[in-house]
Prior knowledge:
This protein is α/β, with parallel strands linked by helices. The protein is built from 3 helices and 8 strands.
Amino acid sequence: MRSYVRSGFSLLCCSLLLLACASQSPTNYYSLQVVSDPSIEIALAQSVTLGVGPVSLPSELDRPGLVTELGGSGISIAPYHIWAGDLDENFSRVLAGLMADHLGIDQVYAAPWDTRFRPEYQLRVDVQRFSGTLGGDVHMDVLWTLTSKQGRHKLHGERSRLHVSTNGTSYLAYVDALNRVMSDFSATVAVRIDELLRVARHAEPVIE
Length: 208
């Protein structure tokens, strides 16, 4: 009799487990992508080298699940919508790619770079905000600094605040908005860097 009870209990547990697995939402993975603005036409000399980093992101974003805002001080962490890799690394790599595209140069490196190499210029990025609401606006608030002479000379420091609207209420639309606001930020910084380097080189165009 006990064996029948144990068998029945085991079957019940297996059935409940299968039901739970069947009802569980599938996990969706996302990553930031290089989405350049084709209207930005800057052509620095190919000899210019730029390092992007260090990059600092808000600590509340340091988790696998996508973080969205709920209004006020509330946030939501999605359990089944997660980053495909490390967000810090993804952000730095994409920002370096965007800066390369917008500045028209090839030698843009995301930190950390090889200790035997030091870029001529360095873009340090302290991200204060990189989030928003599903179906609403996504915001990017960044303190950034451009240095030269292997980081020993500060050329410029500025704060950039940007936002874009999401094109839908899905997490895919949310990540798309994050990509677009990153592109807007990098385009803004690229134009400013072009101006700064022209002044630094005695107002002569830094082009080939």
